[in-house]
Design brief:
Length: about 300
């Protein structure tokens, strides 16, 4: 009997506040979608940093006959020059122990073919066009300028590249987007919280006489609050389901179908990260429903 009453009261509440309930669902849908996107953006930045910062190296590319670097003279690097370059690198105090690796033309060509295995450009490049290089790991990746200065311009050196100079601006931009998304998501979550509070407040005010009677006949606070709680939880769950579906669709079409195929060198968020984000979104949606409902209905429980 009590369950029938609670379900009946829930149905009446939804009918009376249908437009407000729809507004709550849409607000939660949008806010949780953006919140989930911000969570995935944080995961993506962390994946990129973990994938690249631990592998940051100084790449010292050696001259070929077609190179135009200032250390090149239109000819291939000689063995004597390679020995001199390697000596400078190995004796540099910032070079990590056993941190110097030589990549031959053959190895560079194999790496090139793996990276662009589905691209027609592979058929237009030959092994002779590849550059030999030294890959240098540092004791501290932050301290790369001394080694770059020592090696750049040596005879036989075409270019010296440090991935950090390319990655740092990218990660700063990504971090900025991440912070912006989190701020926007936070504001929308606050808006959803206020929307739910207003909806429950209006529903409780419309049934204040019924609540007063139930309180006088001895109904418990939780029993009185339960229909309002179920109403808010139902709206939050519907909005959370829409938000989770939106996030999965976005990850599938934007990340899995496009980004992973276009930018193969990056490690991208996948099902594991998305599932973790959706769990957090559902929990956040339930918190948005439960807390304002209990706080809003408390004032109507006093006789």
């Amino acid at each position: 009997m009590r369950l029938n009453y609670i379900l009946s009261d829930l149905g009446i509440g939804l009918k009376r506040n249908l437009s407000m309930t729809i507004a709550v669902v849409v607000t939660i849908w949008v806010s949780l979608s953006l919140f989930g996107s911000a969570l995935l953006a944080r995961e993506q930045v962390d994946l990129m940093k973990g994938n690249w910062y631990d592998k940051i190296q100084i790449s010292v590319f050696l001259c070929t006959k077609d190179s135009g670097g200032r250390g090149c003279s239109g000819t291939e690097v000689t063995q004597e020059q390679k020995n001199r370059i390697q000596q400078v690198i190995e004796t540099n105090p910032d070079t990590a122990p056993d941190g110097v690796f030589t990549e031959s033309k053959a190895q560079a060509f194999e790496s090139f073919k793996k990276l662009y295995k589905d691209s027609p450009i592979v058929s237009t490049v030959t092994q002779d066009q590849m550059q030999e290089s030294f890959r240098v790991k540092l004791k501290d990746p932050q301290k790369y300028q001394n080694l770059v200065s020592a090696v750049a311009g040596l005879p036989g050196v075409d270019t010296v590249q440090d991935l950090r100079q390319y990655l740092d601006p990218l990660f700063k931009a990504l971090n900025g987007l991440q912070v912006g998304a989190l701020i926007a998501a936070g504001l929308l979550l606050v808006a959803a919280l206020m929307q739910i509070s207003n909806t429950i407040r209006l529903a409780a005010y419309a049934r204040r006489r019924e609540i007063g009677i139930m309180r006088l006949v001895g109904a418990s606070n939780f029993y009185i609050q339960l229909p309002f709680l179920l109403e808010a939880v139902l709206a939050a769950l519907v909005g959370a389901v829409f938000a989770c579906a939106t996030l999965w669709v976005g990850v599938y079409f934007v990340v899995m179908q496009r980004a992973q195929e276009t930018f193969r060198v990056w490690q991208w968020v996948g099902a594991t990260e998305t599932f973790r984000a959706t769990l957090i979104m559902v929990v956040a949606g339930l918190i948005l429903a439960v807390i304002p409902t209990f706080l809003t209905t408390r004032k109507y429980l006093k006789v």
